[in-house]
Amino acid sequence: AQLLFESKYDLSPAWSNACNSLVYFMSAILSPLLGYAVDKTGRNLYWLMGSITTTIIAHA
């Protein structure tokens, strides 16, 4: 994806790498926090349906 960011959005290689790593950085921070929230509420099915709905809307 680095080449995509460089060619389509005219970003430097450093910014392209930063954009690529942003997803993993967010996942490293948010996964434990959301996991804790799911464990505390105990409503795994609702969290799952909410995350699926959010993903579908985000990719539409």
TrEMBL record:
Q: Which GO terms describe its cellular component?
A: lysosomal membrane
Membrane protein topology class: Multi-pass membrane protein
UniProt keyword annotations, A-Z: Lysosome, Membrane, Transmembrane, Transmembrane helix, Transport
Segments spanning the bilayer are: 21-38
Where it sits in the cell: the answer is: Lysosome membrane
For this protein, the record's InterPro entries field holds:
MFS_trans_sf, MFSD1
The family this protein is said to belong to: Belongs to the major facilitator superfamily.
This chain belongs to which protein, by name? Peptide transporter
Organism of provenance: Rotaria socialis
